[in-house]
Amino acid sequence: MECGYSKQVMKHFLKPKYAKKMKNPDAIGKIRNDMCGDIMEVYLKIRKNKIKDISFQTLGCAAAIASSDVLCELAKGKTLKQAKKIRQEDILKKLKNLPAIKLHCSVLGEKTLYDAIKKYEEKLKKK
């Protein structure tokens, strides 16, 4: 472990697969953690009620970036109903845990995904 982070955290931090701004997303979730200042944005492309594509931009520490990347990995291909069930624990399990002081980063991922889905569903209701 480097700096108290697991190999999984370091892998997702150093080489995130989903870190990019998406062109023409169907929904964007954005959450800011007022305690630490981390900001996470999640972009969704949705087809037939499934997350066809997902990406993120995160301004934060290694744990926040790794949590964002894992969140995208977990959500891609899922129905919106399935994606809403992704929790902090799922992110932590995939990362092989985080130091206690960084647990809030995984909560940020859960909340940001939910924010994007909620905005998408609200947009559909207005149509």
Strand content: 15-25%
- Which shape, going by the Cα principal axes? globular
The CATH top-level class label: Alpha Beta
- The number of distinct helices, counting runs of at least 4 residues, comes to 5
Order of strands across the main sheet: 1-2-3
Which fold name corresponds to the CATH topology? Sufe protein. Chain: A
Describe the secondary structure blueprint for this structure.
Blueprint: H1 7-14, E1 27-32, E2 39-47, E3 50-59, H2 62-75, H3 80-83, H4 88-95, H5 104-126
Antiparallel strand pairs: 1-2, 2-3
Helix pairs in contact: 1-2, 2-4, 2-5, 4-5
Structure description:
The radius of gyration is 14 Å and the shape is globular. The protein has a 3-stranded antiparallel beta sheet. α4 crosses α5 (104-126). A hairpin with a 6-residue loop joins β1 and β2 (39-47). The longest helix is centred in the last third of the chain and has 23 residues, at 104-126. With 127 residues, it is an alpha+beta fold. It has one domain (7-120): Sufe protein. Chain: A, CATH 3.90.1010. The protein has 5 helices and 3 strands.
Short descriptors:
Sufe protein. Chain: A; alpha+beta; 20% strand; globular
Give the structure's gist in a few sentences.
The chain is of the alpha+beta class. The chain has helices spanning 7-14, 62-75, 80-83, 88-95, 104-126, and strands spanning 27-32, 39-47, 50-59. It is globular and about 50 Å long.
